[in-house]
Design a protein that fits this description.
This protein is an alpha/beta fold. It has helices at 4-31, 34-44, 57-71, 81-84, 111-119, 134-138, 160-179, 184-190, 194-199, 203-206, 222-232, 252-257, 267-270, 284-294, 320-325, and strands spanning 50-54, 76-78, 97-101, 124-128, 141-144, 215-217, 236-240, 246-251, 272-273, 277-278, 298-302, 314-319. It has 2 domains: 4-182, Rossmann fold (3-Layer(aba) Sandwich); 203-325, Roll (CBS-domain). Strands 2-1-3-4-5 form a 5-stranded parallel β-sheet, sandwiched between helices. The two termini are 39 Å apart.
């Protein structure tokens, strides 16, 4: 373990680096101008794909920007500039827009891609930190990064410059996302996996349907309702009226409240009317919150009612365990 003095030095350096990069982002925010708006407009109207490219550290940033654009509704992909010179230029065609990143604006590996965009009139957005550089001079839209020192004392390690470029890409992606009114549900279409995908899962993705549903008619004897409740294993049974809509539910609590003479009753006599339900297009996270708030372990999923204040047909059933298994909490 490092000595106390060494630990303090590391912390001091870390804070200095983060403070410098944070300061650079503030400068970048103030520097945004009409070029940023022009770039966003080009990306918004793209008929093909957004091709993002860069070499070295700029290439790593370009990959992330392409991924962020793609997951927020703007089709995008990364093309390596060196590979482009050996056949991958075929990935870039009319209808695309190219976003090219280079801190110096003079990276030689970009030359063939730049020439390709000029030859086939493919719009080019250049992002660089040097005014008058080749990339910015040849670009249709030139975004000049402000001149701020790198975070290292030598001033040569790409740190502040890559942070600004990454933030600029995020700013473009979010500007497009908000303009399109891109919703969390839309985002989930491109991001179904992992914890984030689970948070955005819809009730319809997790609910039980068809023969798995515990349902009986209003006039069903409680002996039948108990058999269905036991067989389906959810601890609840839905009660349908003559029109097939969900009129109520019978829960364990209802059974206890009607213990005397239970087997002589009909489902409609024991059920809780106007039960708490949810629509299939709602987020599963909302269903979990609704169950927790009402201290229940499952919800019937219903279609939209045919009339205001009416009930809907039961389309499914969601149990809290389904949500927990899917990582929704």
């Amino acid at each position: 373990m490092p000595e106390t003095r060494a630990k303090e030095t590391f912390i001091t350096i870390g804070r200095r680096v983060i403070a410098r990069e944070a300061g650079a982002l503030a400068v970048l925010a103030e520097a945004l101008d009409g070029a940023f708006a022009e770039a966003a407009a080009l990306l918004l109207d793209v008929r093909g794909r957004v091709i993002v490219s860069g070499m070295g550290k700029s290439g790593h940033v370009a990959r992330k920007i392409a991924a962020t654009l793609a997951s927020t509704g703007t089709p995008a992909q990364f093309v390596h500039p060196a590979e482009a010179s050996h056949g991958d230029l075929g990935m870039i065609s009319a209808g695309d827009v190219v976003v090219m990143l280079s801190n110096s604006g003079e990276t030689p590996e970009l030359a063939d891609m730049i020439a390709h965009t000029r030859r086939f009139s493919i719009p080019l957005i250049g992002v660089a930190g040097v005014a008058g550089s080749t990339l910015l001079r040849r670009a249709d839209v030139a975004i000049l990064l402000p001149q701020v020192p790198e975070a290292c004392e030598t001033g040569i390690v790409p740190t502040t410059s890559t942070t600004m470029t990454l933030a600029l890409g995020d700013a473009l992606a979010i500007a497009l996302m908000e303009h399109r009114q891109f919703t969390p549900e839309n985002f989930r279409d491109f991001h179904p996996g992992g914890k984030l995908g689970a948070r955005l899962a819809r009730v319809a993705d997790l609910m039980h349907t068809g023969a798995a549903l515990p349902l009986v008619a209003e006039d069903a004897p409680m002996t039948e309702a108990l058999i269905v409740m036991s067989r389906k294993g959810f601890g609840v049974v839905g009660v349908m009226d003559a029109e097939g809509t969900l009129a109520g539910v019978v829960t364990d609590g209802d059974l206890r409240r009607h213990m005397a003479g239970l087997l002589d009753r009909r489902a409609s006599e024991v059920m809780t009317r106007s039960p708490i339900t949810i629509r299939g297009d709602r987020l599963a996270q909302e269903a979990v919150a609704l169950m927790n708030r009402n201290k229940v372990t499952c919800l019937f999923v219903t279609e939209a009612p045919r009339s205001p204040g009416g009930a809907g047909r039961a389309e499914g059933l969601l149990h809290i365990h389904d949500c927990l298994r899917a990582g929704v909490a």
